[in-house]
Write the structure tokens for this entry.
Amino acid sequence: MLLSEIARRIHGTLHGEDREISGVSTIEEAAAADITFLSNPKYRDMVQFTAAGAIIVGEALDLPIPQILTPTPYLAFARTVEILIPEKTHEPGISPTASVHPSASVDPSATIYPFVCIGEKAFVGQGCVVYPGCVIGDEAEIDESTVLYPNVVVYERCRIGKNCIIHSGAVIGSDGFGFVWDGTRHVKIPQKGIVIIGDHVEIGSNCTIDRAALTSTRIGADVKMDNLVQIGHNVVVGDHSIIVAQSGIAGSSRIGKSVTLAAQSGVGGHITVGDGCVAAARAGVVSDLPAGKIVSGYPAMDHKKWLRVQNVYKDLPELIKRVRDLERRLDALSED
Amino acid sequence: MLLSEIARRIHGTLHGEDREISGVSTIEEAAAADITFLSNPKYRDMVQFTAAGAIIVGEALDLPIPQILTPTPYLAFARTVEILIPEKTHEPGISPTASVHPSASVDPSATIYPFVCIGEKAFVGQGCVVYPGCVIGDEAEIDESTVLYPNVVVYERCRIGKNCIIHSGAVIGSDGFGFVWDGTRHVKIPQKGIVIIGDHVEIGSNCTIDRAALTSTRIGADVKMDNLVQIGHNVVVGDHSIIVAQSGIAGSSRIGKSVTLAAQSGVGGHITVGDGCVAAARAGVVSDLPAGKIVSGYPAMDHKKWLRVQNVYKDLPELIKRVRDLERRLDALSED
Amino acid sequence: MLLSEIARRIHGTLHGEDREISGVSTIEEAAAADITFLSNPKYRDMVQFTAAGAIIVGEALDLPIPQILTPTPYLAFARTVEILIPEKTHEPGISPTASVHPSASVDPSATIYPFVCIGEKAFVGQGCVVYPGCVIGDEAEIDESTVLYPNVVVYERCRIGKNCIIHSGAVIGSDGFGFVWDGTRHVKIPQKGIVIIGDHVEIGSNCTIDRAALTSTRIGADVKMDNLVQIGHNVVVGDHSIIVAQSGIAGSSRIGKSVTLAAQSGVGGHITVGDGCVAAARAGVVSDLPAGKIVSGYPAMDHKKWLRVQNVYKDLPELIKRVRDLERRLDALSED
């Protein structure tokens, strides 16, 4: 594709000569037929060594290679990748080796791969792609243009929105963790609710999202979840929130909109996290957070405070020496 | 169902008028045909606003709605849910699209869904339900009335007890993590043992329980395990223990009976945790614990001590100021 | 098998009478027909009580049972297990209930179990074993003698080396976690790279290894990964490294050779960890580490320093009392 055509499609301005571009790559690995991009200033010094045939940038660089200028180079690059490397297409229809209950409704434009099992009265919408080994429970609903990668499980009655991407091994709707001790053993609290997932949600591989005890566990629109994330029963996650790998949210907590839970973080049960909050990596949130709060540590505290605390913490051996020294000096003074 | 009938079945006492109840819900979301419950005093103030048609309570409330009194409202509610929302029933038999080795023994009352694979000489007992995509290895045994949700894997020779529930994606019996360096590479220690799981055990989705090197990894009766839990090889978990989401137990540790390991906690290798111990969320247990101990933090310490430590920790910047102040005052005094 | 034959095969020296041995077990559980071993000096006192018929040891013990002497008893034992308990053999060929795309290349010596799905132009090499429910994406390559346990997913174009073992539920090649905010929603950065896994790698159950955005996520030869490990996109892990259960490595980090990341540890994004580094259990590495560094804690610091810090940390309530005491004494002095 001509560079000028790419520039046009991503609403950028071409500086330099037009040429044919066939691939995309990183600054380091790009070859002459590739386009690359510069977004993170950390990589600015590397640009001069790139072998790329073109580069997408935020401001013109003093370099001999053609450049596409745009105020949002990373976003423009994402679109360039989509243009140059189109998504795999899938032939619509149900594989003869899939098992679809006669009462299920599968749109003819959907693709159902081998060894998929679709239960009674389940629904799979227009243009969905259900990869091999997925299991869609009775009365579950997968709305249009959603992709389930191999071996995803959606338990009965759960509902997935439009344009979602669910990666392999994710489990949607397993029982919430609820038991009551009857004096001799743990009695299971039946988990009869569901999971409802909004539109444009992406869920990473091997995530687990439990169904509510009675009502619904809800994941808002445009939520993005990394791998191995655990969501307890009755949790509500607001639109646009980001949950990074290996984080967990305990039962009945409410996460606001546009919240970020960084990697390996946790939120306790029955906690409210306000809109726009950020929990840093490893943070463990154990009390409600007002909107916009940034926290770190366990138990989580204000991030700036945590930085100050850590600054003293890492020098505790020094601190105790200073205290010992004070004691000695004071002892000496007192003896005088 | 009549409220009086529910009261009779859960051994409670009906206060107020009898009426027809058809569903169960939370205090907030219940409608007139629903029964709800009050167990956690935190929700007492919300009860006056409920639209529920009846409520299960520990002591009579001054409210106009019919109440079922019972000393154990949460337990009674669990039973009410079972009564009003019966479990899905499964048609016994082996799906024609399952693959069952001719030497395997599957009880005629068990249900084997499509795309299940059952190996040589494996055993599946009375009333078991094996959902689509499960794989039961050679000579593995699944005892009566156990449910394997979709895509569970039980490796060869492992044994699951009666009345267990194993959620999707759980892996029972993968190789323990054992290697020995031979000077040029890691040599695998063959993992030839098994996993033995007791009766009435529930295992959450995507948990991993490794087989022993030579003997058995053992999970006691009535153990309840949340999602994404990791159990190393040769571990023994005592009856009635609770292991919450994303926790891990390293190889050869012995967890006593009725132990609670809260979310994201960990137990190191070759450690003994006594009966009734509690490891709080995020606790990392690195040494043996006597029975009944409650610990927090990493490395885990007595929970009350940890609370005192955290209380100082969070104010470390204050502490260092006080030390600086002392130094200044002492310097001033010394100069005098 | 005769003990003398075992001794010969593991290059050890037999002390004591020759006898027939048929099994292997632990010091505690071995019976008269079993051979056991002593490697960890912790178990030396237990040896006198063993019922084993023979023992592999580093130096001769004053015990009446036959002993095989070898400088590396643990390694010798691993080999003995392989000799006495041979691996399961698999009948080569493709199950009639597997789904293999006509353009895929599967070596006739490979075993493809039921309900395996192999995509367009995928490659499965000599002697590979692909257990039920595995999904191998289009153009993915599984090199010779590699074993995929049930329900492993390898996304399109990813490449697994020779002699690898991938445990159940592991997901190789799901999309890296990359989004850019366009002012109203998160736009997905297409993840068009791959995962390349070297030879002799073992990957635990339910691990997740994301494909690179543009290039490749690379796992070196002889890397051993425990269960539930998360590897972000573009990560590079060097040969012989060990990654223990529930650890995670964020995107674009480079882990050197022979690195150990202990259980529940984490490495942040865009970080370089030098050859031979060790991150202790729960360590959270947030900055580059030079080769050979041993770190603990979060944020990770030098392990020895961390021990000193923890030593003060756990006694913080004492420290604050000492500071209060100093203040009181100084107040008293000042009042004089």
